[in-house]
Amino acid sequence: MPKSNIQSLIYSEGTRLYAKHNHPGSAKDVVPDTGAEPKVQKKQKTAATASATLSTASQPNDGQIDPSVVREKAQRLSVLVYRQIKRQMKWVPSCRMGTARWSCSLNVPNAAVFFRLFRLEPTDAKGKKWKQKKIPVGDFEYCVGEVEASIRYGALRIMGPHVNLKWNEEDLAFTVSGKYGLWHLRVTQEGENEE
Length: 195
Known about the structure:
- The chain is of the alpha+beta class.
- Helix content is about 30%, strand content about 30%.
- The chain is built from 5 helices and 8 strands, in the order E-E-E-H-H-E-H-E-H-E-E-E-H.
- The chain has helices at about 45-55, 65-90, 110-120, 135-145, 185-195, and strands at about 10, 15-20, 30, 100-105, 130-135, 150, 155-170, 175-180.
- The strands form 2 sheets. Strands 4, 5, 6, 7 and 8 form a 5-stranded antiparallel beta sheet that branches. A 3-stranded antiparallel beta sheet has the order 1-2-3, with no helix packed on it.
- Helix 1 (about 45-55) runs antiparallel to helix 2 and helix 2 (about 65-90) crosses helix 3 (about 110-120).
């Protein structure tokens, strides 16, 4: 039987089998077929589709969401923020100084989810609604997780004393931005701050 790169059908003991790869007959590549076309793998969710999934969840008519639902959506949103930031962390020459930039923009289904995610209050100390805040890096990493991307001879981490957070209440959208660089620069900065 000639080996080829095209998919082939194998008949064995009256059962139709489907070979996935170019090695017909190998046990790990042969999958029973029900006579229909082989199943197509589901696409992985991107940040946009996952954000849309979050926003299309059913909500009660009065605009209030159950606290357990808010907590669950905030956890899913924190994973999206983490992934988007990590995806942007690539080696560039400005990483040597810790000045490479990242930015993440997402929509939320409800303002309560946003405030739960970053553990913030909707108003400042004076009772005014805010549109922009600077969050300490430690607090941000507590909410989202320590974002670290590995590179060939080291790792990249979020740098600087704070992360910028912009909130647009009308559109229920937020943008988080900051800097990243080599991890040992941050360790050195933290050591200097303690002394």
